[in-house]
Write a structure and sequence with these properties.
Keywords: Protease inhibitor, Signal, Thiol protease inhibitor. This protein is of the alpha+beta class. It has two helices and six strands.
């Protein structure tokens, strides 16, 4: 009986992993309240602002996934930011290297 229960537990654990991972990207279910994810989102807006006028004002991360490999963890974010008072949504990809250094890879307006 214990062997059957262990097998069922192992299979259900695999299903949970498969359901939360798509294309090697793991969903971050608490992206709107995760302080680390919020920091990465703010970083993305700050980096974008270094080369753009007018400046965006970071509001929040509305959706996030992540993918880890040898180069670090890539965050795929959907970020809300204010553009001259108008709230807009942007897609961003940020790499957080094992050293903690962050690098913005992409930042563009989200297509709805």
């Amino acid at each position: 009986m214990a062997k059957i229960e262990l097998t069922i537990f192992a299979l259900s654990s695999v299903l949970v992993v498969l359901c939360t991972t798509v294309n090697g990207q793991a969903a971050i279910t608490d992206a709107t309240s995760d302080k680390g994810v919020e920091e990465v989102g703010g970083f993305a807006v700050d980096e974008y602002n270094k080369s753009q006028q007018p400046k965006l004002a970071f509001s929040k991360v509305v959706q996030a996934t992540k993918q880890a490999d040898a180069s670090g963890t890539k965050y795929f974010l959907k970020v809300d930011a204010s553009d001259s008072g108008e709230m807009k949504t942007f897609n961003s990809e940020v790499l957080v290297k094992p050293s903690g250094e962050k690098e913005m890879l992409t930042f563009a307006g989200a297509k709805h």
